[in-house]
Design a protein that fits this description.
The protein is of the alpha+beta class. It has one domain. Helix content is 16%, strand content 33%. The chain is built from 2 helices and 5 strands. Strands 4-3-2-1-5 form a 5-stranded antiparallel sheet. The longest helix is centred in the C-terminal third of the chain and has 7 residues. The protein is globular, with a radius of gyration of 13 Å.
């Protein structure tokens, strides 16, 4: 079996994300700027995280940092 490659492992600039996730009320937006693991590894790791630029009602201009993938996927949809 060939090892799955992480194609989102290099950090991207704000405004040029790999993916965008938005909450149903559109108040929260996660721009995924880096993924630390390949998708197969993420599924096996309950603490898997992404480096994101997050926009919210509290931080309108966005704030960058690591976010647990489960926190995003529990409330948002990929755009």
């Amino acid at each position: 079996m060939e090892k799955e490659k992480n194609t989102c492992g290099k950090i991207r600039d704000r405004g040029n994300p790999y993916e965008v996730w938005i909450s149903p009320d559109r108040e929260w937006r996660w721009e995924v700027l880096k993924k630390y693991q390949a998708p197969h590894q993420e599924k096996m790791n309950p603490y898997a995280r992404w480096f994101c630029n997050v926009y919210s009602p509290f931080v309108k201009n966005g704030e960058m940092g690591d976010v647990y993938i489960s926190d995003i996927k529990d409330i948002a949809q990929k755009q």
